[in-house]
Structures are given as structure tokens and as C-alpha cells.
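Inputs:
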Amino acid sequence: EPEVTQTPSHQVTQMGQEVILRCVPISNHLYFYWYRQILGQKVEFLVSFYNNEISEKSEIFDDQFSVERPDGSNFTLKIRSTKLEDSAMYFCAAGTPGGNHGELFFGEGSRLTVL
Amino acid sequence: AQKITQTQPGMFVQEKEAVTLDCTYDTSDPSYGLFWYKQPSSGEMIFLIYQGSYDQQNATEGRYSLNFQKARKSANLVISASQLGDSAMYFCAMREPNEGVRFGAGTRLTVKP
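Outputs:
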């Protein structure tokens, strides 16, 4: 069973619609991350989440984006008013605390296609 | 400024030979972690190896080893005895305390039979 499960695996949406991507880590990870990878390009950091709040966000993570962990298990990324350029693979990752420990577990990704 | 630099957009290696994928990083924090991930054409991110900044020895995981040169701020990945299944994108990444993990631009490795 994977450490991190993401749903949906693929979502197609119309421009201007809102999408919610979900992530469920199975172990007691304390740090959670969202990354974006536009096809064929680098993996871009969006946001990190610790202790039920955002610990860091990149310049990509503007007001269009939000994250929450409402029930202590699901970690969601909401993208409001999607744009064509939001089409990408979105990866959730979870890890152990601290800056000098262990691996970051990635989900299999959610592919978002905005038409 | 780039925190993680991978200068090789593409690399070729003959099957069964060893290959080194370069990675340099930039940080002023003494505590950090370095990672290598493999991304095959199927798209998933597969963890390969981790090196902590205080680790005295180079990390090894099977055919993967990390050539950690702290003074030069480099963390090259060495893959020994390359296999056709090693063909993929390889990403170097760094985690600093209280910051997200940042990735390099990646190196596409092609193993030739």
C-alpha cells in the first residue's frame, strides 16, 4: 500500500471552474507538500504544510490556490477559477519532521487538464 | 537564484556501465538533506537515496550511491551496472529546515543496449 494516495488520478475541467485535489498519507507524517509539474518540465514547489498551517509557499502559490487538512487525514489542494496554464501533474508528498531526516514520500500524482 | 543545479539535461550510458549524474546545491544552512528521485515515463516519483548534511559517509542504496562532497556543495548520483530500466528522468532535491523541498531541473538518462 503506498504511503501517499492521491485522487483523482486525472481530472478534466473547464477553464474558470474550481478543482479540489486530494491526498491521503497513511503514516504519521507531519509535513505535507504540493508540487506541480507541467509536462516535460521541472518539479515546482507550491506549498508546505505543517501543524495545520502553511509553513512555506512559493510565488506560484497565489490567491488562486489554497490548502487544508480538515479532518486530520485528507490534505487537499483547491484551485479556484482554473486557467489553461494550470494544466499539469500535481504531486502530493509527505515526510517526517525536521530538515535532516529521511525521504519524502510522493503520491502517484493527479493530472489536471484545463480546457 | 537556483538552489539546486543539474547541468546535464540528458545523459547516455551503455548497459552495464556506471554513470554519474551531477548535482550542485546552494545553502547557507548547516542542516539540510539531499535527495535523488527517479521519474520514469509513467510519471511517478520514485525515491532513490537520501544524504543528510551531517552524515559522515556517502549514502548507498543497492546500485545507487551518492557522492557527497560537502565543501564543493555537490551531491552526484552514481548508478552502477546500468540497466535498461534505469532510463528515466532523475531529479536532485534539497530540503532545508522549515522550507519546502526544492528540485533541480532534472537529467534525462538513456541506457543503451
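Remarks. The two ends of chain B are 38 Å apart (CA to CA). The interface with chain A takes residues 29, 31-33, 35, 37, 43-45, 47, 50, 52-54, 91, 93, 95-106 of chain B (CB under 8 Å).
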